[in-house]
User: What shape does this take?
Amino acid sequence: MHRCLELAKQGAGYVVPNPMVGAVLVHDGKIIGEGYHQQYGSPHAE
Assistant: This one.
């Protein structure tokens, strides 16, 4: 969850009025993907 919050903060100032969103995909205890909502109007990370 900490990594999700770190990723989400990268969208600060770019995604308003949407929320800042970070997402991490984990399989067998290993991160296999991650992303964040990069700008308003673009797809969300989740």
In short: The radius of gyration is 11 Å. The longest helix spans residues 2-9.
